[in-house]
């Protein structure tokens, strides 16, 4: 059995990873968009940027 202590340390992030992944990166799904809306606490003054496919609508 492999222990967490036996796993290698993660490689340091390069500048691009630090730029892109400094905030929330969220994988959208249709499981419960209402819960997502509540968790993000969005208002009409917020802007959401999402890359989607197959006609999916972010946050329903």
Account of the 3D structure:
The protein has 60 residues and is an all-alpha fold. The protein has a domain at 14-50. It is built from two helices and no strands. The longest helix has 8 residues, at 33-40. The N and C termini lie far apart (42 Å).
Concise structural overview:
The chain is built from two helices and no strands.
Report the β-strand fraction as a percent range: under 5%
Element-by-element helix/strand order: HH
Radius of gyration: 17 Å
- The SS-based structural class is mainly alpha
Give structural attributes:
mainly alpha, 0% strand
List the helices and strands and how they pair.
Blueprint: H1 15-20, H2 33-40
